[in-house]
From TrEMBL:
Identification of the protein by name: Glycerol-3-phosphate acyltransferase
Membrane-spanning parts: 6-28, 48-73, 79-98, 119-148, 154-174
Membrane topology: Multi-pass membrane protein
Catalytic activities: an acyl phosphate + sn-glycerol 3-phosphate = a 1-acyl-sn-glycero-3-phosphate + phosphate
Major localization listed first in the record, in broad terms: membrane
Cell compartment(s), UniProt: Cell membrane
Domain of life: Bacteria
Keyword annotations from UniProtKB, A to Z: Acyltransferase, Cell membrane, Lipid biosynthesis, Lipid metabolism, Membrane, Phospholipid biosynthesis, Phospholipid metabolism, Transferase, Transmembrane, Transmembrane helix
EC number: 2.3.1.275
Protein's pathway: Lipid metabolism; phospholipid metabolism
UniProt xrefs under HAMAP family: PlsY (MF_01043)
GO terms for cellular component: plasma membrane
Protein family per UniProt: Belongs to the PlsY family.
């Protein structure tokens, strides 16, 4: 019982680590909470700190989710990695190091999927990239890829996977509610590539 509690605590603490915040503070002398969207996750790291910092943040956010998902293996436990990973998502969203505030946990959630089922991870990421290339919107890509993950999980006949992906999808939509409003009004931020961004630029030329 103690080892189980310890495993969930470790998972939460892993999720609470905020690479985007610390990279901004240590190397750029910026608090990314004060710029861009104010979010401490990957997307705002790209926006405020640049490509190099954004890539590092993405990889670290992904890996901390993967590390959390691998904790049952480390602890020689039969607990489903997806359940343990939920604690990391809570940690990322309500970080103990940032007064229980945090990011939207998209990359961290993907990392947990990588630990649990690499093939499912590749499928979800492929959908994310495809939607991003079409819409030029990270928020739209996240919401659609998670929705697809719920649908795809039904074919795996894995009840825990389906339940957790449903919970994660609801959570992702909730955390992106302001983005949804901006998408509806046509004011959502876009990445500097993709079909939508190309069409919009051509219209303004």
């Amino acid at each position: 019982m103690f080892s189980t509690i310890l495993m969930f605590v470790f998972s939460y603490l892993l999720g609470s680590l905020m690479p985007g915040f610390w990279i901004g503070k240590l190397f750029y002398h910026k608090d990314i909470r004060d710029e861009g969207s104010g979010n401490v996750g990957t997307t705002n790291s790209f926006r405020v700190l640049g490509t190099a910092a954004g890539i590092v943040t993405l990889v670290l956010d992904l890996l901390k989710g993967t590390a959390a998902g691998l904790l049952p293996l480390l602890f020689n436990s039969n607990i489903n990695p997806m359940l343990v990973g939920v604690a990391a998502i809570i940690g990322h969203t309500f970080s103990i190091w940032l007064k229980f505030k945090g990011g939207k946990a998209v990359a961290t959630s993907a990392g947990i999927l990588l630990a649990y089922n690499p093939y499912f991870f590749i499928l979800a990421v492929s959908v994310f990239i495809l939607v991003l290339l079409l819409t030029s919107m990270v928020s739209m890509s996240a919401m659609i890829s998670f929705s697809f993950a719920v649908f795809a999980s039904l074919f795996y006949h894995d009840l825990v996977l389906t339940i957790v992906t449903i919970i994660l999808t609801i959570f992702v939509f909730y955390r992106h509610r302001s983005n949804i409003s901006r998408i509806k009004s046509g004011t959502e931020s876009t990445v500097p590539f993709g079909l939508y961004n190309s069409i919009r630029q051509n219209r303004h030329q």
